[in-house]
Amino acid sequence: MKTCISSYSFSQLLRSGKETQLGLVRRVKDMGFDAIEFTDLTPPEGTSRVDYAQMLRAESEKCSLPIANYTVGADFLNCADFDAEVERLKGQLDIAKILGVRGMRHDATGGFRGEEKAYWGFAQALPILIEGCERVTHYAKSLGIATMVENHGFFCQESQRVEQLVTGVADENFGILVDVGNFACADDPSPTAVGRLANYAKHVHVKDFHIKSGSGVNPGAGYFQSRGGEYLRGAVLGHGNIPVVQCLSILGRSGYDGYVSIEFEGIEDAVRGIEISLENLERFLEMAAVGV
Q1: Cβ-contact 95, 61 below 8 angstroms
Q2: Which residues pair with 104 in a beta bridge?
Q3: Is 149 helix (H, G, I), strand (E, B) or coil?
Q4: 231: part of which helix (H) or strand (E)?
Q5: How confident is the model at residue 290 (pLDDT cuts 50, 70, 90)?
Q6: CA proximity to 66, closest of 95, 40, 102
Q7: Which of 9, 148, 155, 196 has the highest CB neighbour count under 10 A?
Q8: What is the CATH code of the structural domain delimited by 2-289?
Q9: Which residue, 130, 116, 113, is CA-closest to 171?
Q10: Residue ranges of the alpha helices (H) in the chain?
Q11: How sure is the predictor about 292, in pLDDT bands with cuts at 50, 70 and 90?
């Protein structure tokens, strides 16, 4: 497995204007990562998304830093027009092709909205999600790009639901971006969940969380609650409660040998938090390889 980082990890710097996605390519290379992953694109004013993708591709080739994956949002349940949402994602796949990635992750949904659908659940959503993902991955296949959903967004987050979606599509071009930390948001134990989904992994995120019991008092700023009421806060990789080495070992035994992206969501300084996370990830990958 090889190291990677999501541009989302640098949100502190990107929001403040201290860094750009284009500038991240050289920064990430100098930090020692094997690849970078971009979360959508934010071109500067006056630059088109197509032109910016070409600029990012050129910079990645100049720095010998592959762009491993492209991550975008989507919602097949609450979009104004289902067909238009599919076409929009096809347009994002055209951007992915320019970037030179082998995979694109898109959301499926965050769940039904509106009181009239208060008693609708995953059973009602699944056929719609399957159709959307099927149509997107069919186009992606013509471009040589795999598509995937992530265990993300509460409604479609725990491993049983994600497995139903990927097996419902039943296309080897469609799989899962396995985020080893995100399962905690749905109170799904990470080792069990990763073991269930490892064979479908197209890309991997390693994320860590500090986890405190929901039976205690709210710890305060930086924490949010899981679906079952546990308190979670993004952590430097290795500083939290997610059994990252165990999850990496499970993925390795399944045959996964692709990129592993750090997705840092801590409240610490982003650069220092990422540096420590990379040091730990390199160590964890070595440990996982020998079954420690």
Answers
A1: no
A2: 70, 147
A3: strand
A4: strand 231-235
A5: confident
A6: 102
A7: 9
A8: 3.20.20.150
A9: 130
A10: 11-16, 21-31, 49-62, 82-99, 122-143, 159-169, 190-197, 244-254, 270-289
A11: low
